[in-house]
Specification:
Structural class: alpha+beta
Mean pLDDT: 81
Low-confidence stretches: 1-24, 213-222
Number of strands: 11
Radius of gyration: 21 Å
Shape: elongated
Distance between the termini: 46 Å
Number of helices: 5
Number of domains: 2
Length: 222
């Protein structure tokens, strides 16, 4: 089936909810942000999230380059001295550097595709595989609410670096993580907004969620 790429929010293409119903908590309408593409047909919707544009990569890139630069100094020194037995002393650091480089490259190349249709929400990523990161499959008729959480992604000089994740609360009461590592609340809220609208889920407050309050955001329930 032919898919139509939206240059604006897919809310313009889907059946409308009444403004007073959908925006009942004064959440602002989110126009599709940079780094996200959305597609829809009559019976399905697809959201494609580019990690490079939607994730916080500044700290990761700096730390990866710094770590590997320091390790490379020792490696070059061992090679020039001819004492290759010293490699054993930094073998763990060397492997960590390779892992960091792999993870950083994956973040620049990979993207996550969220497909809503056929009675389910499916989320998968690629093309570079990540160990222990699995495909997500959630039956849409058991989804009660979507919401956004803010969490500590990393620390720099003792200060937290925050990111956002899109969470799903099931009707059973369990909570599932749909997508994390988003650098802005705007990206996360857009995904929440579009999926809830497509599934015709009335937005409700969830304890611990983050949402816009005029120009700022706040944690509900704090």
């Amino acid at each position: 089936m032919h898919k139509e790429k939206t240059k604006e929010s897919t809310l313009n293409k889907l059946p409308k909810l009444q403004d007073e119903d959908y925006f009942n908590r004064n959440k602002p309408y989110i126009v599709i942000p940079r780094g996200i593409e959305a597609y829809n047909t009559l019976n399905s919707m697809e959201i494609d999230v580019r990690w490079r544009r939607a994730s916080s990569l500044g700290f990761l890139t700096f730390f990866t380059l710094f770590w590997n630069f320091i390790v490379s100094i020792f490696v070059i020194g061992f090679i020039m001295s001819g004492d290759f037995s010293m490699f054993l002393g930094i073998s763990v650091h060397f492997l960590v550097g390779i892992g960091l480089m792999y993870w950083t490259i994956a973040n620049y190349i990979n993207h996550t595709t969220i497909f809503i249709g056929n009675g389910a929400i499916d989320s998968e990523y690629g093309p570079i595989p990540i160990p222990f990161k699995k495909r997500i499959h959630l039956p849409s008729n058991y989804v009660e609410q979507l919401y956004v959480e803010r969490y500590v992604y990393a620390t720099s000089n003792g200060k937290p670096i925050h990111a956002f994740r899109v969470m799903v609360r099931m009707k059973s009461g369990t909570k599932k993580e749909l997508l994390k590592g988003l650098k802005s609340l705007e990206h996360a809220r857009y995904i929440e907004q579009e999926i809830e609208h497509f599934l015709r889920i009335e937005d409700e407050a969830v304890k611990g969620e983050v949402f816009f309050n005029h120009r700022d955001f706040r944690n509900h329930g704090d």
